[in-house]
């Protein structure tokens, strides 16, 4: 049998546990897996692009467990009543290939993306950071706010979005959590005095939502909107103001902010910071930039966390996903005995 967490149970689990403790828990699994980065199979995600959006598969394995995520990105979906991003994920036992765990990942991807941002910021943001500017108040924004409070103690949020209704949604959702929230009048207004800047917009275009003149010394830029070729959010000059940290360069050069830069543009793989092979933040004045596109190992970590967290609870069910005949060589026998003949 395969353990299955559907949307109802995912929502029940998050509601009962709380999104912030879950994000904090995923951070710990992420850091553990990033520290053993070299043990994983790694490849850029397999993407199918259409005029409507993209559908992707994101696989990885540590040679004991295999995991993958199916995910889409369709920026025009909200105007048609659909989510921009939906996903599901699977873990399997590499020894027999059987899927052992299946779960929705629309909610889980939001949690793991936020957890990744928080994990990285713990190493790269300036100590004592308390103010975060957020450009883009879509589905990821609330999760990011909670991740940065968990990781850094962020207490003040300065939000900017071209959609006033989306900003109102953000303030309404975050009001119970005790943040000091300002709805800014522009990107420049939002980043004034910020220690951290998070950019997360949905349009799949080479946009410039943040310009180099707005970047102060010491700021940490958490650029998480990049997820496909031809989509960027940052003025390319920002990438030359400080050190750029990435997940998997082979994928980030295709999909991230650094797709704007020459192929030999120098970046630092974040796992090397965790293992001491590369420096993170080196001074209070340094600008640090996390060019995040999302990578399969992060989904692997999140899947493992949920699998372990719901074990022994009522937040999952067992489903009969794999045909398992008594004689492994007689698959036809499962159906033949029930089929009319002649």
| Helix percentage | 25-40%
> What order do the strands of the largest sheet run in, or round the barrel if closed?
9-8-7-10-12-16-14-15
How much β-strand is present in the residues? 15-25%
Instruction: Please identify the structural class as seen in this structure.
Output: alpha/beta
Radius of gyration: 21 Å
Question: Largest sheet, if any?
Answer: 8 strands, parallel
Under CATH, the topology of the largest domain can be stated as: Rossmann fold
Count of alpha/pi helices:
10
CATH class assignment of the largest domain:
Alpha Beta
Shape: globular
Q: How many structural domains are formed by the residues?
A: 2
What's the rounded overall pLDDT mean? 94
Written as H for each helix and E for each strand, in order along the chain, the element string is EHHEEEEEHEHEHEHEEEEEHEHEHEH
The beta-strand count equals 17
| Spatial gap, N to C terminus | 34 Å
List segments where confidence is low: pLDDT < 50 over at least 5 consecutive residues. Answer: none
Question: Please, what is the CATH homologous superfamily of the largest domain?
Answer: NAD(P)-binding Rossmann-like Domain
CATH architecture of the largest domain: 3-Layer(aba) Sandwich
Folded structure, characterized:
It contains ten helices and 17 strands. It has helices spanning 7-17, 19-35, 106-124, 141-152, 164-174, 187-191, 249-255, 270-274, 296-310, 332-336; strands at residues 2-5, 46-50, 53-61, 65-73, 87-93, 99-104, 131-135, 156-160, 180-183, 196-199, 206-210, 220-223, 232-234, 243-246, 268-269, 288-291, 317-319. It is globular and about 75 Å long. By secondary structure, it is of the alpha/beta class. The chain folds into two domains: 2-107 and 297-336, ornithine cyclodeaminase, domain 1 (2-Layer Sandwich); 125-294, Rossmann fold, CATH 3.40.50.
